[in-house]
Amino acid sequence: MADETRTPVTVLGLGLMGTALAAAFVKAGHPTTVWNRSAGKADALVAQGAVEAASVADAVAASPVVVACLLDYDAVHEVIGPVTGALQGKLLVNLTSGLPEDARQAAAQAAELGVDYLDGTVMTVPPMVGQPQTLLFYGGSRTAFDAHQPTLSVLGGNSVFLSEDAGVAALYDLALLGILWSTLTSALHGFALVGSEKIPAAALLPFAEAWITHVALPSIAGAAQQIDAGQFGNAVSTVALNQIGLAKMVKASKAQGIRPDLMVPIQGLLDQRVADGHGADGLASLIEVIRKPEATA
Question: HSE of 143 in the Cβ direction (CA atoms, 13 Å)?
Answer without folding.
Answer: 5
